[in-house]
Write a structure and sequence with these properties.
11 helices; 7-stranded mixed beta sheet; 6-stranded parallel beta sheet
Length: 333
């Protein structure tokens, strides 16, 4: 089968179309013919050997897919060949075929495209875990979302509104602000691009505090990191919760004296480990996401679809941090 392969560490330009052996479904497994694969920031990191896990090469990046069941292993009764399914994997999504444990897949709802279905699970499952389990979000609270125009950012805006929060989205351009307003944010701030000096950092903190008035934000959702983190932390209110989701702008160094003065928490969000440790709770979250999706209260925003041969371009766009919403690669016809 064809796959977009990482053979050496490096950027998207090092990826090349190659051949891998066709996967075979073992007991309790199915093989999916991949139709669409959504791109996420971990795809940038894993090919550069900067992710938490380093798979042996050659491998295909791509962590969330939608497609059609092509083969069913022994003992599998839930799926049949031809069923439309969606699922998450650590990697391998940019391959024509992929093997899954049967119980890890979900049916693509009627009327949903493969492209849309591929773009739901990772970003929204990460975010519902972040807001509910780690953030204990409550109706009426004020939520600041950094990087609000990205995949997880838009998911946080939509889910924050679904849970009854007042949502402030923060983005780096007016074009991104348009998308965040369309997703339902109550307020949108356009900030300058980092790096920031001391005065610029203070100015951004003051803007966040103004939006958080009168008592500060209850929650900060941060999939960005870098120089944006400290100004956001300074805008937290008493006993606020700062949710650490990712670091495309760099790993920040936070002044921990602020956590003492505000009696606030900095809480890590690692959805993959949560899903592995608590599969039943994760399935309940995903069932809730499907309900919200069906009601139209959340909807993955696929803004660009790339052909398989240009999958590296999609990852390059993600690396540049200029994309809005989700980028998807169409793998199979």
């Amino acid at each position: 089968m064809r796959a977009l392969l990482s053979r050496v560490p490096g950027g998207p330009d090092t990826l090349e179309i190659g051949e891998l052996p066709d996967p075979v479904a073992g007991p309790g497994e199915v093989v999916v013919a991949v139709k669409a694969c959504a791109i996420n920031y971990p795809d940038v990191l894993v090919i550069e050997d900067r992710y938490q896990m380093r798979p042996p090469r050659p491998f295909a990046p791509g962590g969330e897919i939608a497609g059609v069941v092509a083969e069913v292993g022994e003992g599998v009764t839930r799926w049949q060949v031809g069923d439309r399914v969606m699922g998450n994997t650590m990697m391998g999504g940019l391959s024509e075929r992929l093997r899954f444990v049967a119980d890890s897949l979900h049916a693509v709802p009627l009327g949903r495209s493969f492209e849309e279905a591929s773009a739901l699970l990772l970003t929204y499952a990460t975010t519902i875990h972040a807001l509910v389990d780690r953030g204990a979000i409550a109706a009426g609270e004020r939520l600041l979302v950094l990087g609000a125009a990205g995949g997880v950012g838009l998911a946080a805006v939509e889910l924050g509104k679904a849970f009854g929060a007042y949502v402030v989205g923060a983005v780096s351009s007016e074009a991104k602000a348009v998308a965040v307003r369309a997703a339902g944010a109550d307020e949108v701030l356009v900030y300058d691009r980092a790096p920031f000096d001391k005065e610029q950092s203070k100015a951004l903190a003051d803007r966040f505090k103004t939006a958080a008035a009168p008592n500060g934000f209850d929650l900060v959702y941060d999939p960005v990191g870098g120089d944006y983190a400290e100004p956001a932390l300074r805008s937290l209110g008493w006993e606020g919760r700062y949710l650490v989701v990712g670091f495309p702008a760099g790993i920040p160094r936070l002044p921990l004296n602020l956590t003492l003065l505000k009696s606030c928490d900095v809480r890590g969000v690692f959805w993959g480990a949560f899903a592995a440790r608590h599969p039943e709770r994760n399935r309940a979250h995903i069932a809730h996401l499907f309900e919200l999706w069906g009601e139209g209260r959340i909807a993955p925003r696929v803004t660009e679809v790339f052909p398989f041969e240009r999958g590296g371009e999609a990852i390059a766009r993600m690396a540049a941090r200029e994309s809005v919403g989700k980028l998807v690669v169409r793998v199979g016809a």
